[in-house]
């Protein structure tokens, strides 16, 4: 407990920020110390500034924290800063924080495509953090100050897609075709305005702005590799892997369902049983490292024919575990299956916390 | 009006039967005369026997009809019989009706795969009715009585899939790969028990029994052709066309949304604009024949990026028109798009009525 | 048809304005000529300016109308102006229109409490329009120009409450206690922002700003009488009638359900059967006048124990009829019952249209 | 741990039974030993017999238990038996268990109205358990075996109503008028059939069979007193207290919302602030006894104007705490307010567990 790291939250009054705060309260590794929000909120007690909209109560420990503006000065003593900033604001703030030597774990999309910024699903591609490790080691060797960095959380629906595919790539080699049709919960759209109620009662909205492009691009980075010099990433080329996403919004509060299909490059493809076996046996690095929030099972393979279902399965391993069901052969590609992931936990704020736990275990914060 | 045909409804108290009755009340071509249900209901006034669950009121004209048992004797004077029977009961009853010379339009799945039974989406493959025409003509030539027949309504989610694909096949040649992920409304599951409320509030059920198999098989019959001797159908072979469906149940009352993708056999594939043009220009035979329920537009091509949506678009052309949106290129197959169809109208009872209207216009009833 | 009156709509791009436009397209009495919206929209074609969100398509006849600013000049030739303006804007605009001699039927709340402005539920208290009639007659007698006026549409949940109570007051004398707990649909909250989806999936919000006060006050005006000099209204005093409302928002798209109870001043109270008989026999003035949109039955008395239900009953008489069920004795007051009314038809835009039809039949526009 | 009591569950495969099992797994006081179900399930492993429908996984400890028939013989070693039996079966079974000397805590309605059976809301009227205590003491004094008994869990919506009223009665004297309009979740209706999905999407059902009668009757027993001889209860008479309920089913998974109003017999009535103070200060006996599941706060008084809400507030104190909001004066009675209670926890299975914990602390099992 004496070694708790100091944590800050950018965008503290927003919905991602609120979830960071919930997950940080009573966290063994981190102590919430600084909350940053807009100039309008700065100076107020957190409880007075926030419109709290979570199913858990506002933690006592956060109520009285005085909100700061999102300046380096205010966060300079933080060991790690979680950013729940809207992408309209995240760009210059996160850049300034990084340049000031701070460790930033961000849910914003602004730097996901930067060549040296790891884009992390914490149950999936934590080897990508070696790019940060290398940067820190180089600085150390050169006798320089520990450099700041940004580690990005992936898009929520990307997380659900790659989580079960990565173990399969590890065991059976690369994929060359992936399709996903997503049925996404509304909590991911935030609150003001988010998804209007009249759009989502007795209805489906078959479009989410930029979502399909995010999935299609991010998958190629996350399933890609760290390059040899460890200063960036080899994205999988469009030639080697085609990803096609169709995204819809559905009347579900939490939990993204995805109907996915995929094809392996190598022939013969594994059997259905081999695929399930691979998923069942998968243990993520966060679990091996003993991280506090790491799921007992990163991937749950369900055998009932009508699962996973968001209401019943989204809270597996407190939302850090992903559920897979209906693994079966596909006549068009090799396999099809249904994946369920908790969009605000493993797909957003929770992922940020687990990334930070891994960074801590690896000695990077 | 003097020429109204006499109509009967089998399974009159069930949800499909109720919709047949609604659509037949005040119909210019048909007069509802006989209602068949189980022995338990037989002898009662319809109003007393039915638990009416429609948004329109029980038509006055149906209230006092005395329910019959589902026997040939009771329906022998009907020019056309609409069957909303559950498949557990439909088999022997529909067979007996056909053998007795009656014209049966059935929503049950029992005879859909029979080699000489047309499986019809009435805005799509009405040319398949020539098999019935041929049979009647042969009997006439042979001086025999007009033979009975069964014409089957397709599965609801099959209808939404093939409706926009058939015009494309007509214009650009065969498809060799089709995928669909369906987001299906609950009204199609009927009422007792149907989909339990607790399964569908804030939830998705990613499984519908036998639905994927139905779509995958029926598509090959509907997109297939009448054989040369006109006594049956050439199904498209698995080699020539692969269809892959993933079916989910969503919290929507009426209207199936499908995210589909497909590939043409011929290269080069048409452009997005050509695809949309083809769909916009499509006029179904029912419209050409001037059928009462035929949609003004069988296919509506929507240009707004977030349409079609079930609550807003399901009632186009009284549910007989299908809406298509988000037509765009697909990296894995050629195109992807979103289709919306009203599952209880063009996907079930409404289809039956329109099939009968077409049969009438063709002189087959 | 040659006598169609010229109609304008204020707030034409908003959700109430859109419904006015829908109801005016193909209306036999009115011809839509002028559409008013904010300066930002003015000058655009209506189709280009509006985000159309109705289940019926944007009428062809409205698409090309060029939007005007909400000035008297633009609307000066209108025989009637329907106002769907937000109350933030309605005040000065509606006042100016009235002073310029225009006939305004408004959905805004701004002038509902004015002593000389009738607050009308068009199936309920159309006798209140005599205040306008008197004003016009006086001007005529004095040789003055026909004066402008405002007629206000009641709050949506007030409409559902008073509609079945007024016939009872007519038949059995005054009420002294009324309670209502409302379960209100989200369509009434409009669109930007309206009710956020995340607030209403798997949830109830037991509060609607100012709604309870509106119901409690408006009921006393609507159930009150025109004063002797016919220049205003006698509100029922708090001493004579106490109204208590509890308002909630529920996951329903259209249709307000209200669980109401009430007590008559006179003893003995009527029987349940007498109450139902009174409701069944009620014929509203709009029906007697033969108004185009008048419901066949203003009040539908349902006998099934689990009705009315919004999805099944909201569209009775195209939304102009109110449904009442579960009429039974109450141990605390005299009676309790469940009322269902379509909040955007009889509770908003539809009411405005029907009010205008009545004004027309009475020769007031 | 060495003193864990042996627990059995009747109706173990049903939805109430499943929740008993969840709450008993890892319970410090009770060890689940016997599961009873129908003859059809008897002999099977629990995991094989049950269709598990909970958001938490089936506890490992229950999976392998062999299901017994619901006979005294099978349960004879149990210190306490929780009954989740349907009322169609509960009558003779629970009676036999009681007569055999077993302690039964039942969710069925069969014996709630028995003069000597306590009807308990465990955060409300635990003093009523003295009737059981007296019976046991008498037997002890007479040198007889410890007698069996039944303690009944109240109806779910009764629990939400009386929980906040009891502290007020304690502080300010009796009530003479109570009204409640309930907005009830669907989980309480169970699963086969429960509430059909098509009835509850975009809909309200304003009727729940027998529910209003249960609330109106049970309130008078629960707010009543133990009689002087401690062998039964003084129900409040209809003359002294009138209760009127209107019950509706709403599209909410868990959590009953009730809009209640009430009047005190004594004048002057307390102030709003006094009412809130009384509710805030209330500490239930279960908390004083230190029961494992006792809520930290039996009553949460919320000050935000739009709370409580089911999705946000139902899980307070793991569902054992009741939330109250919008306490305000009522023009018809004295006060009105909104109450939220978790229908399957404090309104059903959870109540049973907490009752048993209290019985244990009192030395009655």
Automatic annotation (TrEMBL), chains A, B, C, D:
Pathway: Amino-acid biosynthesis; L-threonine biosynthesis; L-threonine from L-aspartate: step 2/5; Amino-acid biosynthesis; L-methionine biosynthesis via de novo pathway; L-homoserine from L-aspartate: step 2/3. One of its GO terms (molecular function) is NAD binding. GO terms for biological process: methionine biosynthetic process; threonine biosynthetic process. Residues 6-132 form the Semialdehyde dehydrogenase NAD-binding domain. Keywords: Amino-acid biosynthesis, Membrane, Methionine biosynthesis, NADP, Oxidoreductase, Threonine biosynthesis, Transmembrane, Transmembrane helix. It comes from the Eukaryota. Signal peptide: none annotated. The chain crosses the membrane at residues 340-360. The keyword Nucleus does not apply. The active site is at 156 (acyl-thioester intermediate), 256 (proton acceptor). It is an enzyme of class 1 (oxidoreductase). It catalyses: L-aspartate 4-semialdehyde + phosphate + NADP(+) = 4-phospho-L-aspartate + NADPH + H(+). Its EC number is 1.2.1.11. Belongs to the aspartate-semialdehyde dehydrogenase family. Catalyzes the NADPH-dependent formation of L-aspartate 4-semialdehyde (L-ASA) by the reductive dephosphorylation of 4-phospho-L-aspartate. Mediates the second step in the biosynthesis of amino acids that derive from aspartate (the aspartate family of amino acids), including methioinine and threonine, the latter of which is a precursor to isoleucine. NCBIfam families: asd_EA (TIGR00978), PRK08664.1 (NF006416). This is Aspartate-semialdehyde dehydrogenase. It comes from Wickerhamomyces mucosus.
């Amino acid at each position: 407990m004496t070694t708790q790291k100091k944590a800050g939250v950018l965008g503290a009054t927003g919905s991602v920020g609120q979830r960071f705060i919930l997950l940080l309260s009573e966290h063994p590794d981190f102590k919430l110390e600084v909350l940053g929000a807009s100039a309008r909120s700065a100076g107020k007690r957190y409880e007075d500034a926030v419109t709290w909209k979570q199913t858990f109560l506002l933690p006592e420990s956060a109520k009285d924290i005085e909100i700061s503006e999102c300046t380096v000065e205010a966060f300079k003593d933080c060991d790690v800063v979680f950013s729940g900033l809207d992408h309209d604001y995240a760009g210059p703030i996160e850049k300034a924080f990084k340049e000031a030597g701070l460790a930033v774990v961000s849910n914003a999309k602004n730097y996901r495509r930067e060549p040296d910024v790891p884009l992390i699903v914490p149950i999936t591609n934590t080897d990508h953090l070696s790019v940060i490790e290398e940067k820190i080691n180089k600085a150390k060797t050169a006798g320089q100050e520990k450099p700041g960095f940004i580690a990005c959380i992936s898009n929520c629906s990307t997380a659900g897609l790659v989580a079960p595919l990565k173990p399969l790539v590890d065991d059976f080699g690369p994929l060359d075709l992936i399709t996903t049709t997503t049925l996404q919960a509304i909590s991911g759209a935030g609150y003001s305005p988010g998804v209007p109620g009249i759009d989502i009662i007795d209805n489906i909205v078959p479009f989410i702005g930029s979502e399909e492009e995010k999935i299609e691009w991010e998958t190629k980075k996350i399933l890609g590799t760290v390059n040899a010099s460890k200063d960036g990433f080899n994205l999988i080329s469009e030639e080697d892997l085609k990803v096609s996403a169709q995204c819809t919004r559905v009347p579900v509060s939490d939990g993204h369902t995805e109907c996915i299909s995929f094809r392996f490059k190598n022939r013969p493809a594994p059997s259905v049983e081999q695929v399930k076996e691979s998923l069942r046996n998968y243990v993520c690095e966060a679990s091996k490292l003993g991280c506090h929030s790491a799921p007992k099972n990163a991937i749950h393979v369900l055998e009932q024919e009508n699962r996973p279902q968001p209401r019943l399965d989204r809270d597996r391993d407190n939302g850090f575990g992903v559920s897979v069901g209906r693994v079966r052969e596909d006549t068009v590609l090799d396999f099809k299956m249904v994946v369920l992931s908790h969009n605000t936990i493993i797909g957003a704020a929770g992922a940020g916390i687990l990334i930070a736990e891994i960074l801590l275990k690896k000695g990077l914060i």
